[in-house]
Design goal:
This protein is of the alpha+beta class. The chain has 13 helices and 13 strands. Strands 1, 2, 3, 4, 5, 6, 7, 8, 9, 10, 11, 12 and 13 form a 13-stranded mixed sheet that branches. A hairpin with a 2-residue loop joins strand 2 and strand 3. The two termini are 29 Å apart.
Length: 376
């Protein structure tokens, strides 16, 4: 007997929702638990600014009295306004290897979306493309990087057999230090001089003394530089503030870069140390009482970065800013002992960026898929 029930976004049921993947994947050597506090705040309508324009309903599935799966049905008002659509979403999907349970969860999410008057079901997104999204369909031989999702291979079968089909693939590239060579660094000085002659400088973000303004500048470029990407939805000021507060705790300013022209930021590069290397060792994502010490001491041993965002406003593209960003990241990464970086995620059809990364000997090593289903 399978029972799917809606749950509130707080209290004991929310803890059960957050903890279910930990138990489901406890024997998987590549699984990384999300930080409990971060997940709790992300799913709480009283705390996360997503809920100022969105709605979400959480569901838990039980089979024969045992917890068997979870899913969220999601309405994203900003997405539909910006993209002039009527899309619904699902996310936070985790399930035992049982098609009947998966069908019951997805049918319930689909029913909720229909009740909202939405015409498609797209996902997984947790809860938007500005957070972890996509289903891992290739690259199951390593753990995910920071803010990237993870799932076992059988999830793909569960979604496809339910009737969901591919909308688009998102690609992650691995850049290994041994394969990069020295050419970008050798060219950096000449590129820097050429940019300076045009009044453009590349500098670290000042997160210590000027955090508020820097975050505002980052937001302007992020929302403008990515506005033509499929599925993109601009982040609100409140969402940037919320994200910035969390990222400030783990960011290394050597890898948070701005290109500035006459006092205005025109390009950004954001790389974060892969704290998943540490979170993997923190039981059930709880920092307290003992996890915080593992987190603080483990950070010193991290040897990989994720290139989370790298974008330049259109009038300033192909001037060498992107190359300066990459050269700076390489140089600082080597100084600090990083062995590899992941560039993610990239749309599969973003030929300009994909070819540029491949030209730097980037290796496509993980693929994530966004699925869709028409509801009308």
């Amino acid at each position: 007997m399978i029972k799917v029930a809606a749950i509130p976004s707080k209290g004991k049921d929310l803890r059960t929702f957050i903890d279910f993947p930990h138990d489901l994947h406890r024997d998987d050597p590549y699984y990384v638990p999300e930080l409990f506090m971060a997940q709790r705040d992300l799913l709480n309508p009283d705390k996360h600014p997503f809920f100022k324009h969105g709605r979400m309903q959480l569901f838990l599935a039980h089979k024969d009295g045992k917890l068997a799966g979870r899913v969220a049905a999601i309405f994203n008002g900003n997405h539909n306004t910006f993209n002039k659509g009527n899309d619904g979403f699902f996310g936070f999907f985790d399930c035992i290897d049982d098609q009947e349970v998966a069908n019951a969860l997805l049918q319930t999410a689909e029913g909720w979306l229909r009740d909202q008057g939405l015409s498609t079901m797209i996902g997984p997104v947790n809860p938007s493309t500005n957070e972890p999204c996509g289903l891992l369909v290739d690259g199951f031989d390593s753990s995910p990087m920071i803010l990237m999702p993870y799932n076992p291979l059988y999830y793909k079968t569960l979604l496809e057999r339910y009737g969901l089909t591919k909308q688009v693939d998102l690609v992650a590239y691995a850049l290994y230090d041994n394969d990069l060579g020295d050419k970008p660094i050798r060219l950096q000085e000449a590129l820097t001089e050429r940019l300076a002659s045009k009044g453009i400088v590349v500098r670290p973000f000042d997160l210590k003394h000027n955090f508020k303004r820097e975050l505002e500048q980052f937001g302007k470029v992020y929302n403008a530089a990515w506005d033509k990407n499929m599925g993109f939805v601009p982040m609100t000021k409140e969402e940037f503030d919320f994200m910035g507060k969390d990222m400030k705790m783990i960011a290394d300013t050597d890898f948070c870069l701005a290109a500035e022209h006459n006092g205005e930021v025109v390009g950004i590069a954001l790389c974060l140390p892969d704290i998943n290397q540490v979170l993997k060792k923190i039981k059930r994502g709880r920092l307290f009482p003992a996890g915080v010490f593992k987190f603080l001491f483990g950070r010193k041993k991290i040897n990989a970065l994720r290139i989370l965002a790298l974008g330049v406003l259109e009038p300033y593209r192909k001037m060498g800013i992107e190359a300066c960003f990459y050269a700076t990241i390489m140089k600082k990464g080597r100084e600090k002992g990083f062995k590899m970086a992941e560039a993610s995620w990239m749309l599969e059809h973003n030929d300009l960026m994909n070819k540029a990364i491949e030209h730097m000997h980037g290796v496509r090593y993980k693929t994530y898929r966004i699925f869709e289903k028409q509801l009308s």
